[in-house]
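As agreed, record minuted below.
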Amino acid sequence: MAISMKKLEVFEILNKVSSAKTRKDKITVLQQNNIMPIRDVLRGTFDPQIQWNLPAGDVPYTPNKEESYPSTLLKQHMKFKYFVRGLRESENLNSIKRERMFIEICESVHPEDARILVSMINKKPPVKGLTEKLVKEAYPDLIPT
């Protein structure tokens, strides 16, 4: 009989990083959860080469209040290419369509994941204790120097 382990959501992983007691523990949590959604959020937050083609500041969305969420960042991170300045997928969308798409993602995921997305486009660490230096230690190949 196969045992199925539930994948942690992005916000759950980042909360574990935030609550880890030592720097080494934080790095271990990141390395144990080396998945593309986490890497995409961290790179989107800390890589200065990635500029968001969205207005900075608060995002006018209504957080999802349901017990089950129609989507997760584990799936939605694939749409980040529509929001990065300079990428064809982003530049081919008019700003209203692009901003509406971002709002729809924020409204379809867990409220904590939506908060992480807003932090990411504002280039702010999504949780306490998470820094660019820590991310570079955990994933040396993620952010070019």
